[in-house]
Amino acid sequence: AALVTVMFHLGEMATATQSLDESTFQILGEEIGWNIQIVSAEEEDKELLQQFDIDLDGEELQEDEDLKPRPPVVTVMGHVDHGKTRLLDTIRKTNVIEGEAGGITQRIGAYQVTVTLEGERRKITFLDTPGHEAFTAMRARGAELTDVAILVVAADDGVMPQTVEAINHAQAAKVPIVVAVNKIDKPGANPDKVRGQLTEFGLVPEEYGGNTMFVDISAKQNINVDKLLEAVLLTADADLDLRANPNMDARGATIEARLDKGRGAVATVLVQQGTLHVGDAIVAGTSYGRVRAMLDENGKHMEEAAPSTPVQVLGLTSVPTAGDLFLVAPDDRTARQIAEKRQATERAAQLAKRRKIVSLESLKEQ
Ligand code: GDP
Ligand code: MG
Fold first, then answer.
1. Helix (H) or strand (E) holding 259
2. Element (H, E) at 86
């Protein structure tokens, strides 16, 4: 009631259950001599986790000796119809044929392939999400998922609006780009023209004295796709120091999730830190549960998943949202409590939003 009075003196007719915007809160605070702090939803959640002794910036991520090399996580970007899906399919199929003969692959939003570079077997993780989602919707708390972007440009079409958009996204996120000049099998293909065009966007080919790797490929005929994968690893090695701590409770991002008739909630998660085990108590957004089983993209059961590994997780009691932070809790009870507190916060936020709409509508009626 006191606040309503102050609002009245400020010339605003408010009700006790009304939502106020941030600047009004600040003014109100000054009027009554309170120090108002606006806490973002992210900060609030961090504080919630701290109450359960989970520190997202904990020292297990700082100590050098704890950190071990991890595979790069790669997103394929580019203009529509330039061959992103075809490339992802070619990479996946080629690898499946080499690896698991007869394995039935499913689209689970991410997959891992093995590449031999200079006699060494190395892994690359691909995010198989359409368009630019990996850069926008899936930005889990500022923790970028993508380490390297493959920019696909069709050699018969050249740089197009979404090519430029993709470059902007990657450059803003400081993600190095490897250029795949695609469709070189086509009669009208002009890979040199693409090189010239991209130079204007700061992507200068190595052969022109720049530091961007360009690989001429045909996703359709599987030409040079192996060279493209090598270029990804070479770029990651040259530009990035990709390491993670495998010896801590796992955390990562939810890539996609759905309800399966027989298996319940199925979530694809990308482990970013720690190692995920069958039996771990987990929280993803407002969902919680216990890892009942883990499957790779070939439907093969896994007992554990190290950093940069995408894995399908069974055992959540509800379906989380893509982009949700995913983490292992010390025990089932803690996992449930975190999820329930988040559910309460979400409900309160929805209620506040509804009230705002209702009060605006009643204003209009007056
Ligand atoms: P996206 O929109 O970037 O995902 O493009 P798609 O992968 O769906 O490819 C668009 C069309 O180009 C499809 O008909 C593909 O079969 C075709 N395509 C993709 N890569 C190549 C290629 O290397 N050569 C040729 N000739 N066609 C290709
Ligand atoms: Mg596509």
1. strand 251-260
2. helix 84-98
